[in-house]
Structure formats: structure tokens, C-alpha cells
Amino acid sequence: VQLQASGGGLVQTGASLRLTCTASGGSIDSHPMAWFRQTSGKEREFVAQISPTGRVPYYKDSVKGRFVISRHNANNTATLQMNDLKPEDTAIYYCAASLKYTPVHLADWDYWGQGTQVTVSS
């Protein structure tokens, strides 16, 4: 499975962006999907995760109430709707898919997209 992340950009504080992860070379409908982000010099951090059915989302505390993860298995895509963006949300955002039923650690995520830059100006 290959993943392609898109939708990043430069926005002002309070704006919204919608990131899309498009899968090819296989179906994602049986895989948990997630979004991570990384800034220079820091470890990649978890942002949001969604179960294969789309019924069980999890979020990093700092994005709860602002970000919404969803998936569209028929289109082989997952999205991250980001609202009320803040400068601290600035990072490269990566989508990921796991072969495990309940991925916990970073190493549990098997497939990664190439990343899309999100920059939020103050």
C-alpha cells in the first residue's frame, strides 16, 4: 500500500485546512489509519487515529474539538479536517496505516505517506 498526503499550505491563525490521505496499491478498509506530525528537531507525534470502520476516533489532547479525522473506504482515503489552527500546529503532517488491529507505538504503523507541510502564521 502506498499513501499520498495532500492539502497542506500556509494559513493564518484561526483558519481551516483539510488534509487528505489517498491510498493506492491496496485497500485500506481493514487498516487503522492515523495522522502524525513532526517539526524540525522533534520526534514525530501522534495527532489522530481512526478505526477501520470509522466509528472509533482518538485525538491528541491539544487538537480535540478542533480536528476531525474521518475515512472514506469506498474512495480509499482518509481525511483530517483541521479547524481553528494555531501556530503550534505548524508541522509536516504524515498519514499512516497499520496492519495491527490496535496500534499503540510509532513502530506499529507500517505504511507512511510522504508528508505535507502545514504552516500557521500568527
Keywords:
seven-stranded mixed sheet, mainly beta
Molecular structure report:
With 122 residues, the protein is mainly β. 0% of the residues lie in helices and 48% in strands. The chain is built from no helices and eleven strands. The chain has strands at 2-6, 9-12, 17-24, 33-38, 45-50, 57-59, 67-72, 77-82, 91-97, 111-112, 116-121. Strands 2, 4, 5, 6, 9, 10 and 11 form a seven-stranded mixed β-sheet that branches. The protein has a four-stranded antiparallel β-sheet with strand order 1-3-8-7, with no helix packed on it. The model has no long low-confidence stretch (mean pLDDT 96).
In a few lines, what is going on in this structure?
This protein is 0% helix and 48% strand. With 122 residues, the protein is an all-beta fold. The strands form 2 sheets. Strands 2, 4, 5, 6, 9, 10 and 11 form a 7-stranded mixed β-sheet that branches. A 4-stranded antiparallel β-sheet has the order 1-3-8-7, with no helix packed on it.
Query: Could you give the order of the helices and strands?
Result: EEEEEEEEEEE
Radius of gyration: 13 Å
Low-confidence segments, given as residue ranges, are: none
Total strands: the figure is 11
Helical stretch tally? 0
- Tell me what portion of residues adopts beta-strand conformation: over 45%
Summarize the amount of helix as a percent range.
under 10%
Q: Name the overall outline.
A: globular
Structural class: mainly beta
- Average pLDDT, all residues: 96
* Largest sheet, strands/sense/barrel: 7 strands, mixed
C-alpha end-to-end distance: 37 Å
